[in-house]
Amino acid sequence: MYLINPYWHRSAFTPIWSISTQQALELIREAVQGERNDELFYDQLIRLAPNPEQASVIASIRNDERGHNQMFRQMYRDLTGYEVTGVSNEQPEQVKSYIAGLQKAFEGELSAVEKYRKIWFGLPSGIYKDTVYGIILDEQKHAAKYNNLLIRNLTGQH
Q1: pLDDT reported for residue 120
Q2: Contact between 18 and 121 (Cβ < 8 Å)
Q3: pLDDT band for position 81 (50/70/90)?
C-alpha cells in the first residue's frame, strides 16, 4: 500500500506550490523593491539603536539587503534581457519606536523567506536557484538576529 504525500500531486517531482518562471520573475521584480524598502527602513533603525553594537548588527543586515537587491536585479536582467523597471520610489514606513521597528523587521524577514521560497520553486536548477537559496538563508539569519535584538531589548539586556 502506498501513502500519498499531501505536499505532492500528479508527479513526485511537481510540488503543489510550484509556480511558473514568469511568476517567479514578477516576484523578483517585487523583491527588488522590497529589499530597497528594507534597506531604508533599517537605516532608521540604526539611528534609533541604543548602542553601537546593536547599530552594527542592523548595519550588517542592511548591507546584506543591498547585496540581495543587486543579485535580484542581475538575475532579472540575465533571465529577461531587461532591467527591472517600474519600481516605485515610495518611502518606507516610519519607525514608531525601536522595539516596534525590530518587531516589524523580524516579521518582514520571515515574510521574505516565504516569498523567496516561491521564487526558488519557479526557477530552473542552476546558479539562479542556488543564489536565491543563499538569499533565503541570509533572510533566516537576519530573522534570528532581529529576534535576538528583540529579546535583549525586551528583557533589558541592551
Answers
A1: 95
A2: yes
A3: very high
**Residue 87 · residue 33 · CB < 8 Å:** yes
Q: How many independent structural domains does the chain possess? A: 1
Q: Which residues pair with 8 in a beta bridge?
A: 15
In a domain, 11, yes or no: no
What cell was used for 65?
A: 539587503
Q: 113 is in which domain, residue-wise?
A: 21-154
Question: In this structure, what CATH number is given to the domain that contains residue 139?
Answer: 1.20.1260.10
Which has the minimum average pLDDT: 68-77, 85-94, 146-155?
Answer: 85-94
Instruction: Write down the residue that cell numbers 539562479 correspond to.
Output: 128
128 forms bridges with which residues in the sheet? none
Query: Quick check: is 13 in a domain?
Result: no
Closest-CA residue to 59 (of 135, 131, 147, 142): 142
